[in-house]
């Protein structure tokens, strides 16, 4: 089919009319002379009366009289295309505008501007060839700039899409890692709370044990002090016995000073000091090997010479046993 140039006038679809019935199929207005298709400039009174007497013409007839139908031959066939009698709507106006946008990127507007610019170049080239060539360079430069911008736009869009996809992939990984870290944080917090409770329990138990140990140590120290005092008194009594047998007081005073005890004169022989040993003059004391003390029972029946000899023997024996007891006492203290 022959392509008809585009026009702003709206036509109906073409209708095929055979050449054999061409004269019968064509509307009556087409068989009339061409002058009938032209509107009368100044109809006379008779013509007006004649038109009033004729039946009312249809809209299609009036449109065909104003805008004649298009006729053409194609492959031995005769085609006719009449003007459309359908009223125009807003949609038709939008379709005629080809939906070209006033702002932004619009290929339709770009095409129209390119055609307009090419037409200007053509007209200018007819008048002056140099100006036409200069405008041609301007057009090529503009096209190159637009092509560069388009390439940059496409590459930036592709880069943005790639980065968006990478961000989505990284986002899922980061979300899973975040959940894992949150779980680990909860576990660590639970462990910290358990360790704090255990630490508090251990600290409380150790405080109680330390208090118990301190109390036990205090009792041991008191017991040792008491034992030490008893031992001091015991050794003091031994030295008193020795001094009583030897008749000297110098060793007793020095020993009492070293032991931190009161002087022998301040101690009554008729009282008990620490170890509950009576210091009366019933007879000399004898220090046994086990450290115990005893008295001679027949002291009163002895003569003076016997008493003197007994005192000398007892003095040496008691001194040796006392030294032995001192050595054993030091070894016990060292242990």
Overview of the molecule:
The protein has 335 residues and is mostly helical. Among the domains are: 97 residues, no CATH class; 98 residues, no CATH class. It has ten helices and five strands; from the N terminus they run βαααααββααααββα. The strands form two sheets. A three-stranded antiparallel β-sheet has the order 1-3-2, with no helix packed on it. Strands 4-5 form a two-stranded antiparallel sheet. A hairpin with a 5-residue loop joins strand 4 and strand 5. The longest helix is centred in the middle third of the chain and has 118 residues. The two termini are 133 Å apart. The C terminus is likely disordered.
Fold topology:
Elements: E1 15-17, H1 22-25, H2 28-31, H3 34-37, H4 45-53, H5 59-66, E2 70-74, E3 77-81, H6 90-96, H7 107-127, H8 129-246, H9 250-259, E4 285-287, E5 293-295, H10 304-334
Antiparallel strand pairs: 1-3, 2-3, 4-5
Helix pairs in contact: 7-8, 8-9, 8-10
